[in-house]
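To whoever picks this up:

The nightly regression suite flagged Transcription regulator PadR C-terminal domain-containing protein as changed. Nothing in the input moved, so I suspect the structure step. Input below, exactly as stored in the fixture:
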Amino acid sequence: MPELRDPGLLRMFFTPEVDHAALRDLAIGQLRQHQERLDTYHAMMQADPCELPDRPRFTRTLRMGELYEQACLTFWQEVLDTLRPE
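Regenerated output under the current build:
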């Protein structure tokens, strides 16, 4: 079975559900981090194909990273949307 080791999920697990400020800060930080990674992956996909070794394998692996980051963005936005506004 694959393992998901995500410090943000671990922090969320141990943050009291009533601490909306901490959960909001965590979700906003996670959204920023995952968007930055997704932007990096998109930039890599736009790179000159001659600069990338073994392009097909590289792009398939990069695509999985892209899908993972998109899923993380969806998840953390859902967490943020469930919290009371300040």
